[in-house]
Description:
Elements: H1 7-14, E1 24-32, E2 35-42, E3 49-57, E4 60-70, E5 73-81, E6 84-92, E7 95-103, E8 106-114, E9 117-125, E10 128-136, E11 139-147, E12 150-158, E13 161-169, E14 172-180, E15 183-191, E16 194-202, E17 205-210, E18 216-224, E19 227-232, E20 238-246, E21 249-254, E22 260-268, E23 271-277, H2 281-287, E24 293-301, E25 304-310, E26 315-320
Parallel strand pairs: 1-3, 2-4, 3-5, 4-6, 5-7, 6-8, 7-9, 8-10, 9-11, 10-12, 11-13, 12-14, 13-15, 14-16, 15-17, 16-18, 17-19, 18-20, 19-21, 20-22, 21-23, 22-24, 23-25, 24-26
Amino acid sequence: MKFKMTIMAAAIAFSGTALANQNESYIDQEGINNNTSVTQLTQGAGNNVSDVTQTGAYNDATVLQQGWQGYNESAIDQEGVGNHANALQHGTKNSASLAQSGAYNSSESQQYGSRNALQVDQEGVKNNATSYQNGWRNFAEVNQSGSFNDSDVVQWEDKNFAMVNQEGTKLSSDITQSGDYNYADVDQSGSFNDSSIDQDGTLNKAMVRQSGLKNDSDIEQNGKYNTATVEQSSFNNDAVITQNGRYNTSDVMQSGFNDVAYSSQTGLGHDSSISQSALPGFFGGLASLASNSATHVQMGVNNSAVTTQVGGGNTAYVHQN
């Protein structure tokens, strides 16, 4: 999900009743053709603080802070060439820290509500981080190093937590959380790995660990107290976990080649575990290039399924109701 409302459009929409009260702006630029725009609009307490530091050439930073209570804090630090950062804060006591070094990195952040916190750290070339927080006490941290990596974090409502670490090339992470106390943690290395997490409810937890090349993970959770974990390494593995209900647990571990795992849970208290790996040695690896496939479908209450596949060309299907 992408939010395309511009900083300037929001400022124009809000400017009709704006009063400036004890806001602070600090700008430090060194280099050539760096650009910074800071707009601070308040109806009440004010006391917004913006700090922008730019070193290098053709870096661009835009800050908009607004709201009745104020006390928002924004810090942007850019070093290099052609980096771009936008920070929008509408509410009270939100904090955003955006740090970029390298070339042509981009960070777009929007915070609505109260006491939301965001930290973005990018190092490399053409990394992109987009974040949207709307609610109370949501937290997001994004760390990117390498090139052409992409992270998108969207959090609605209260006290959700999102953590993204990317180190490599062409890595992609998409996290969407709606509800309260949801937790998402993504750690990616290698190249062309893709992770998607969508959580709606309360106290759901999703963790993804990816290394290697062209692995794909897709987690969707609806309900309460669901837990999903995906660990992928090696090459071209695909994992899908879908959970609807409460207290469901699903784990997928893939370390082979071209393997496919699908886990679907509907109901209460299910436990699913799928493990897929290659045979050892050179010839074992060649024999394991054929895809393993494992499917678990669980409905009802308190079902448990465990599937372990080693090698290639194996197929498993489990249906429990």
